[in-house]
What we know:
- The protein has three domains: 52-209; 232-255 and 295-551; 256-294, no CATH class.
- The strands form nine sheets. Strands 12, 13, 20, 23, 28, 31, 34, 35, 38, 41, 44, 45 and 47 form a 13-stranded parallel sheet that branches. The chain has a nine-stranded parallel sheet with strand order 15-22-25-30-33-37-40-43-46. The protein has an eight-stranded parallel sheet with strand order 14-21-24-29-32-36-39-42, with no helix packed on it.
- Helix content is 6%, strand content 38%.
- The chain is mainly beta.
- Strand 12, helix 3 (216-220) and strand 13 (231-235) form a beta-alpha-beta unit.
- It is globular and about 70 Å long.
- Mean pLDDT is 80; it is low at 22-30 and 152-156.
- It is built from three helices and 47 strands.
Amino acid sequence: MNNNKKATKRALLTSVMALVMCVVMLVGTTFAWFTDTASTAVNKIVAGNLDVDIVDENNNSLDGGSLSFIKAGAGTDAEAAILWEPGATFFTQGFKIVNKGNLALKYKVVVSGTTGDAKLLKAIEFAVVTEKTKEATEALAEKGNLLLNGASAPEAENVYYYLRGHMKEDAGNEYKNLTLDGISITVYATQYTHEFDSFDDQYDANAGKDTAYYTLAEFNGLTKIPDGVKTVYVDLGGKSLQNGLTIGNADIADHYQYGEWNSDVAPAGYPHKTSIDNYTTHDGDKVRYIYSTGKPSVNVILTGSVLGAGDTGNFNAGVVTLQVPDAANVVFDKVTFGAGQMAMSMWTESHVQSMTVAHRVASVTFDGCTFNGNWIQNGAFGADEMVVKNCTFNKYENTAGINSDGFNNKNNSNPIWIQNMGQCNVTIEGCTVNAVRPIKLWEGTASGTVTIKNNTFNMSNFADATGDDAYKNVAIMFCGTKEQVKLGNVEITGNTVTGNATGFICFYNNSTQYPSMNTSATFKLSGNTLNGVKESVLWKTATEWTPTYVTK
């Protein structure tokens, strides 16, 4: 009996343990539910293409090309020569504006400046017209819209326009033998409200509203840059540098005021504390800072051309003065600079608590510009950053003769020569430099980083160069008193030298007169194609010499 009871207990215990094990196994098991998946592809995302063009009567693009005035009855090239005289009217070939992209666009047409004798502009009237008639016809609308390629309204895309020039009947002898060229027609385009997103066609309704277009006179006449405008285009209009050229005015520029001694409290109306150390004033243990009105940043895009001031004596150049907000980024976009000497300057404010203070801007860029003279100045550049890219410097010879001190102005035929540049980071990239003298950016006092890369230097020399003048045909020059010039990182790479050059780079021939480097700064020279030219020489000699801080 007892044995039966024991057997029953063992059987029950075994059953309970088996049940527990089953539960445990069940908890750790994944049920095999019926499953399925589905997916769909989203069609390829393609960004739209905004592409406007000017084409001739054969539908050939005129972008980067030119139009010519036409003489009636001309059968040969000689007969086709245009001779302007009082009462004469000439037209160019026809052109039209077309949309070559797949987005609707709105555009603005600007007739831009000239090179040559600006005086002649007073005697010749220009207009873009729709008909070749002796009397002025309806001018091209300043603005217009173009729908998709091939879908534009006929009146927008299929009508030809002409540039009309008329010399005034009362033009006198003072205009004889003057020349004028470089007139251009530029079309600026942006998005137009035509395409739909998931809601409507108004998503780009504000496109272009942050951009404004002005002649130089219009820009210089502004009392303020309009609210919301972040980019302004200004046509320089072929103005002469003979008596200087100011871009902007005191109304649109920032103004300065000193704060109190040893105080960080901004004066009323001057909320922005400047970060320029040069603008601190020390009086024993006291210091005060200059504050500015702190106007918003704006991109100032300058187009067209300016006429040179002619050949002048050493550092007597025609000055371009910028009078724009301190936070501005100024771009000279494909601007042509005429023969002679040019200088750059920032406006100075003369009554800042009885002191004269020079303003600065964020950056100045020369993009795709053509220099037919040289850029020469003595004084701080007045920008935190300077960029010269994709520009062409044509060979220039200063013919101003010899100064009273015996200086031969032929020797200031440098593409760029800036003394006492001050604090500025400099980049020169992708330029073609045709020259007999070096680029000189760092003479006197200067500091900042320097990058010179992927340029081509086509060097030559004056046929009559003798003595040490015969050795001045160097591509790049660094000079300045070691104690005054403290350069940041310098990188010179990817450049090519062709033609007749004494050396690629040079340093002043007095061992105390070459730049020094800031702590931890490096001077790297590598990857340049020299074509047999000496890499580094002493100025005015063919003697090879390289400062110890230069690495390769």
